[in-house]
Amino acid sequence: MRAELDQIFDEVLAQLSELVAIPSVAWPSFDPAGVRASAEAVAALARDLGLDAEILTAPTPEGTEGYPAVVASIPAPAGAPTVLLYAHHDVQPPGRPEAWNTEPFTATRVGERLYGRGAADDKAGIMVHLTALRLLRDRLGVGVTLFIEGEEEAGSPSFRNFLEAHRSKLAADVIVVADSGNWAAGVPALTTSLRGMCALEFEIATLDHAVHSGMYGGIVPDAMLAMTRVLASLHDENGSVAVAGLKRETHSDIDYDEDTIRRDSGALDTTELIGTGTLASRLWSQPSITVIGLDVPDVAVSSNTLQASLKAKLSIRLAPGDTPDNAVQAVTDHLSAHLPFGATLTIGATEGGSPWQADLDDPIVQTARDALSDAWGVESVTMGIGGSIPFIADLLEVFPQASILVTGVEDPDARAHSANESLYLPDFKAAILAEVLLLERLAPTAS
Fold it and tell me: Strand 174-181 vs strand 82-88: parallel, antiparallel, or unpaired?
C-alpha cells in the first residue's frame, strides 16, 4: 500500500494544490462563488473515483440557504457497516497578505511542507478520504458516505438542518471527522476530547454622547475606563479565568513540554505562560476567555474624546462537561457584578457549541488507534485539543448509535487559521495509510 501511494503521491499533491487555489471562504463578506467552485471541484474528484456525488444545501435557522456541501456514497456490502467520512472544503480568510511568506491561495512546497490556505485545514482531510478510497478501489469491505461540508469555518450554521434534511443519505455506524491534528510531527493521535465554545457580544455605556476629554476628563468616567476594568476582571493574577461557575479540570494523562508550547505558539522569550495546572489541561480541559473584538477608534483617527459607549466580543472555550448556556449565563453574571462607576451593560448576540468527550471503552476507538500506530510506525496517543468542533454534538444527537473518531493531519506547526498555514507531507501520507487500514479493519471479514 505504501508503494502504491508513492506512485500516485505527486498526482494527489497536484489535486490538493488545485483545491487550495480556490478561495472558498464561506463568510458573507467574501464572494460565495469560491465556495461553489470548491464544491464542484470536490464533487468532480469524487466522481472520478466512480462515486455518485451530489452538491446539496440546507437552510440556516434564519431561513437563508446554507453553503454547498458534497455528499457521495458507496453502498455497504451485506452485513457490513457504513462509515461516514467527514471533512470541509471551506477555509478561513487569508488575513493580511504581507504576513504570508508565500501566496495564500497558491500551494507552495518548501521542503517537506506544503504552504497555502486550506492546505492543512481542511482540504488535506478531503484528500485523505479520497485517496484512501482510491487505494482500496475494488477491495472496499464497508459502505462509505463522503460528506464534505462547505461552511465549517463560518460556524456550520446550516449543519443541523442539513443532517435532518439528508438524514437517510448520511446515516452511518462509524463517523470519521478528519479535522483535527496530531501530538507532534511524526507522532499520531486520536482526538478524544474537544473544548466547547461560545461567543458573547456586549456593550458598556457611561454617557449618552461623547464629550471633550479636556472639559470632562478626570471627573466623568468614559466607557473605555469602565470596559478595561471589566475586561481585567475576567482573569486572576495568574491569567486563569476568574469567572465563577465554569467547569474545569487541572490534570491530564500526558503533558506538553513548555519549550514546545513556546516554539509552536510563537510566544516571545519574555512572555510568561498563563494559568495553573498541567499545560495540557490548560488547553484541553480548562476554560479560556479571549477578547477577540473591541469597537474603539483606531489610533490613526482618534480624537480627544471621552467615548460614551464601547462594544466588545468574547470568545469563550468550555471544558468537557460544561454547556454553552451555562457559560453565557456565568459570564453575563460576572460582567454585571463587575461593572464600575454605575456603567450600564447590554448583552448582544451569542452563539455556542458543546464540548465533547469520546467513549474510550468503545472498541472502535482502539481499532482506530492501532491503525494510526501501524501507519506511522509509532505508538499513537489519545489527546484533547483546545479548539472546538461544535457540530459533533449534532452528529451525536441525530446518529446516537454511531462511533465518532476525530482524526486529522495537522501538526503543532501547521498554523491553521494563521498566515503561513502548512501541511507536513510525511504525516499526510501516514494519515492516508491509516484511513486505509481503518476501513479494512472495520469490514466484518477483518481478522
Answer: parallel
